[in-house]
Amino acid sequence: MKNAIVGQDSGLVVSRRRLLQTAAGLAGGAMLPAGMMLPAFAEDHPEIGTYPAGSSGSSVFIGISVPRTGTYAVQGEDELKGYELAIEHINSGHELIKKISPKTTKGLLGKELKYGVADSAAKPNEAVQAQQRFISENKAIMITGGTSSAVAVALNKLAQREKVLFVCGISGSNDTTGKDCVRYGVRQNFYGQTAAAAISPVLIKTFGKNKKAAYLTPDYTYGHTVTKSMQDQLAAAGWTTTTNQVSPLGAPDYSSYLLNVANSGADVLINVNWGHDAVLSIQQAKQFGVLDKMKLIVPYQVPFLARETGGLMQGVYASTDYWWTIEDKYPLAKMFNEAFEKKNGYKPEWGAANSYISFAHWARMIEEAGTFYPPDVIKTYEKEETIPSLVGDVHYRKEDHQCVRPVIIVKGKMEKDMKGKEDYYDVVEIVPGEGLMQKPDAFGCNLGDYT
């Protein structure tokens, strides 16, 4: 496990031996006499996954895996900050958490949240190995992570096999709640289909019909499904694909791909790359003169992209999960922005906002279920109740465990119009989620069993 960290907010690097000792302590709570168990756990539920061993003591454990090295590291660290703030708020009974999960006082069902962090490096095998250890050694009652959709899909499979809930972190692939969906996985954030359905009408209105598009696509499930969704949505207006340049994750040089884009005769460049890959490919597109010949579009916005590309997002349209200026419309967004900036010193990007609200929703489901028993928690998600979020009221679909939520369309501000150093985007439109989503079975979702 790379860079494993266990604690509440400690940042303490812990050895495998210490992890085993911690796990033994957590598991030991399961051996308490029945009369000493808290009322919430004197239930007639069979053992499943880490239940009841993982929730029999005074605390419960969460396994977090995010990329802290590699091409998605910047976004992974931002995602982690959102998780850590949510854990802090749940443990303290913060007023923002109470607005989302009214039954939360301090901790979940009165139990303190503890957590471990592992560096996935955006590699599925690294993430699975780390989370398997958190499940086996720390009796994790929930795991989370992603940033790379390949990681999210792998953790979906682990969660279903181990019968431990996976609250998905960042994942833009349609497959995560499509053909690779599982009963033990839920996802809050937007994804390829909803991004494409939200931004395509704006692009058609802005640039017109019958345009030629060149694509830069990362070669894994996120890239392929976002590109396919964009092609499908734009085809109705006569947009065609002149070239689709597919590159590996972490490619150091995009010159050969950009040469093909430059010679394709395209009107627009649709860049589906993410993380540092998006930064590098956009910077090189500018250096090679591609952006002088065609307009840039980013269908699935990357946290910190405007900052890291040095102004190259000015005038560029993108779809995103969250942008901090929506605080003027959503009071909970304002509360979150203030708490996050106070703790971390900058305005939250959508990775942190997504991870925070995902944990807040999970807390609500446990409190509403009144138990940590996984099937009951899952069935609470499946009630499709309308619940608060940072972007207004939302709900989770019972058929695929996808959150039905709005997508935000932004346009990069020109430098002269920025009101502060983090005022990178104008919000063009907030598109309601219901009309953006495919039918629940369109991408082949079959959730599987509870037990």
Model description:
The chain has 451 residues and is an alpha/beta fold. The protein folds into 2 domains: 5-190 and 330-404, 3-Layer(aba) Sandwich (Rossmann fold); 192-320 and 407-436, Rossmann fold (3-Layer(aba) Sandwich), CATH 3.40.50. 38% of the residues lie in helices and 16% in strands. The chain has 14 helices and 15 strands. It has helices spanning 16-28, 73-92, 95-100, 124-138, 149-162, 192-207, 221-235, 255-262, 275-287, 290-293, 305-308, 331-344, 350-369, 374-381, and strands spanning 5-7, 59-66, 112-119, 142-145, 165-168, 185-186, 212-218, 240-247, 268-271, 295-298, 317-320, 395-396, 403-404, 407-412, 425-431. A 7-stranded mixed β-sheet has the order 8-7-9-10-11-14-15, with helices on both faces. α2 packs parallel to α13 (350-369) and α13 (350-369) packs across α14. 55% of the residues are buried.
Which features characterize this protein?
451 residues, alpha/beta, Rossmann fold, seven-stranded mixed β-sheet, six-stranded mixed β-sheet
Outline the secondary-structure elements:
Elements: E1 5-7, H1 16-28, E2 59-66, H2 73-92, H3 95-100, E3 112-119, H4 124-138, E4 142-145, H5 149-162, E5 165-168, E6 185-186, H6 192-207, E7 212-218, H7 221-235, E8 240-247, H8 255-262, E9 268-271, H9 275-287, H10 290-293, E10 295-298, H11 305-308, E11 317-320, H12 331-344, H13 350-369, H14 374-381, E12 395-396, E13 403-404, E14 407-412, E15 425-431
Parallel strand pairs: 2-3, 2-4, 4-5, 5-6, 7-8, 7-9, 9-10, 10-11
Antiparallel strand pairs: 1-3, 11-14, 12-13, 14-15
Helix pairs in contact: 1-4, 2-13, 4-5, 6-7, 13-14
